[in-house]
Amino acid sequence: MIAVDLHQASLRFGELPVLAEISLQVRAGERVAVIGPSGAGKTSLLRLLATELRADSPGALRLWQQDPWLLSSRQRQRLRSRIGMIWQAPPLPDSQRVITAVLAGRLGQWSLPKALLSLLRPRDPAGARAELARLSLADKLYQPCGALSGGQRQRVGIARVLYQDPDLMLADEPVSALDPVLAEASILTLQQQAAARGSTLITNLHAVDLALRHFPRIIGLRQGRILFDCAAEAVTSAMLAELYGNESPGSLAEQMPPC
Ligand SMILES: Nc1ncnc2c1ncn2[C@@H]1O[C@H](COP(=O)(O)OP(=O)(O)OP(=O)(O)O)[C@@H](O)[C@H]1O
């Protein structure tokens, strides 16, 4: 089944074109890394898939064969509860305890009374601890988020989405604040958990080596256009040089061999 289907999606911020006629399909359970230079549009692409931003052209996005923008707001909310977003800098209030931050991953799936009760008295400490343990953070369960380092906050953000257990995980630079060893271990955990749960995973990464080692499919994005979309083994150093180089995307696309 196709989980994500983007058809000629373009996006502008005011006059600024950010994404230009992006088309891609991602099967349910597939794991994909998006790489590309700063400002290429990687975050904007994820925000589009998360239905946080809306493409310029109607009908450009289908999630699980549904156009989110043709659903009622209630139905769209239900659809969004199937999506988990891992931010580069997770929005965790300093005074919130780590356990509450992780359990918040399921707020969208719980009834209002259940969610409010959980804020007062966390209802599943064992579940939160188990996800934190995968990221070597079990000992931080009752700490306030304000006492965490940037890298620990990133891992709490990952644990929160693992606790949510969504069908689609979208991760924007999820390990940018981690040292190389922790970054490798955390990406491995994320990738393995997505595979074990059958979740679709789309991750933006600046660390190309991590992307190539851990993701079967790589999308190269430059100036809002897909330059290549192929298996990790098919990515060559010449393709990477072009992706991060100074040539215009038009001339690159003409030279790029089909993947
Ligand atoms: N909310 C916004 N309003 C206006 N312009 C924006 C907004 N968000 C992003 N942009 C612009 O859109 C372009 C793409 O930004 P985006 O954050 O998607 O790129 P990126 O590939 O994720 O970059 P990075 O790797 O540096 O995070 C940039 O030129 C950026 O300045």
Automatic annotation (TrEMBL):
<keyword id="KW-1278">Translocase</keyword>
<dbReference type="InterPro" id="IPR050086">
    <property type="entry name" value="MetN_ABC_transporter-like"/>
</dbReference>
<protein>
    <submittedName>
        <fullName>Phosphonate ABC transporter ATP-binding protein</fullName>
    </submittedName>
</protein>
<feature type="domain" description="ABC transporter">
    <location>
        <begin position="1"/>
        <end position="248"/>
    </location>
</feature>
<dbReference type="InterPro" id="IPR003593">
    <property type="entry name" value="AAA+_ATPase"/>
</dbReference>
<dbReference type="GO" id="GO:0005524">
    <property type="term" value="F:ATP binding"/>
</dbReference>
<keyword id="KW-0472">Membrane</keyword>
<dbReference type="InterPro" id="IPR027417">
    <property type="entry name" value="P-loop_NTPase"/>
</dbReference>
<keyword id="KW-0813">Transport</keyword>
<keyword id="KW-0547">Nucleotide-binding</keyword>
<dbReference type="InterPro" id="IPR017871">
    <property type="entry name" value="ABC_transporter-like_CS"/>
</dbReference>
<keyword id="KW-0067">ATP-binding</keyword>
<dbReference type="InterPro" id="IPR003439">
    <property type="entry name" value="ABC_transporter-like_ATP-bd"/>
</dbReference>
<keyword id="KW-1003">Cell membrane</keyword>
<dbReference type="Pfam" id="PF00005">
    <property type="entry name" value="ABC_tran"/>
</dbReference>
